[in-house]
Design a protein that fits this description.
By secondary structure, the chain is of the alpha/beta class. The protein is 41% helix and 16% strand.
């Protein structure tokens, strides 16, 4: 596997998607999904200039982060259980998967204990899939103000995992709906939300065209996972 070639190809595809909609390529941040990959591979990717990595599970991240360069930033992109909030606040620069007011309150509690302000994204289950976590869109609007009022939580935007499909164009309405919902959230708060985290290895170009500011790519950059087989819908 040629990491450098993978990364160059991904960057070219990001640039092309941005060009199609008049965006600057620098407006899209690549979150490299290291779930199921070794610390050694993360270190090799970091040598190529990648600096932000996404992990799905707190326990796996805890074991990996200490073996990687300290300059790297880590985002939690998988479902967070309330009993893992203490470690999540400690190890991650951002939690992208806030899916309930109760979870936000628990994160806030541990952030207060750590004297840390925690940037978060609110995860939205736009397609209403029973197999996925995340807020229903209308419930985001109902609870957003309470989450935003938590003193140690900073809401930076929204995140979604689109339904798995072999045809990326089919999930364009999901990404478009998340962008529209972000606008509604901004109207509600009276403030801009900088981030839309959407798009994975199979659909990121469509996500970029629809306004993604963060894309979460695993296999497109790091290749197939050695530790586990990627499931349908994995990054």
């Amino acid at each position: 596997m040629d990491l450098s070639a993978n990364l160059n190809q991904v960057r070219q595809r990001i640039s092309a998607a941005c060009a199609r909609t008049g965006r600057a390529a620098a407006s899209v941040e690549l979150i490299t999904v290291s779930k199921g990959h070794s610390a050694e591979l993360v270190c090799a990717a970091a040598q190529l200039g990648l600096s932000v990595f996404g992990e799905n599970r707190v326990q796996e991240a805890k074991a990996k982060i200490g073996l990687c360069p300290g300059r790297l930033r880590w985002h939690l992109i998988g479902h967070l259980q309330s009993n893992k909030c203490r470690d999540a606040v400690s190890f991650f620069a951002m939690i992208q998967s806030v899916d309930s007011l109760a979870l936000a309150r628990e994160i806030n509690k541990w952030a207060e204990t750590s004297a840390k302000t925690m940037p978060v994204l609110i995860e939205v289950n736009v397609a209403g899939e029973a197999s996925k976590f995340g807020y229903a869109p209308e419930k985001v609007l109902a609870e957003l103000a309470e989450i935003n009022a938590l003193p140690k939580i900073e809401v930076h935007g929204l995140m979604t995992v689109a339904p798995f499909t072999q045809e990326a164009e089919k999930v364009r309405p999901v990404f478009r709906r998340l962008r529209e919902l972000k606008g509604q959230c901004e109207d509600l708060l009276g403030a801009a939300l900088p981030h839309l985290s959407m798009g994975m290895s199979g659909d990121f170009e469509v996500a970029v065209e629809e306004g993604a500011t963060m894309i979460r790519l695993g296999s497109a950059v790091l290749g197939p996972r050695a530790a586990l087989k990627p499931a349908a819908g994995d990054p």
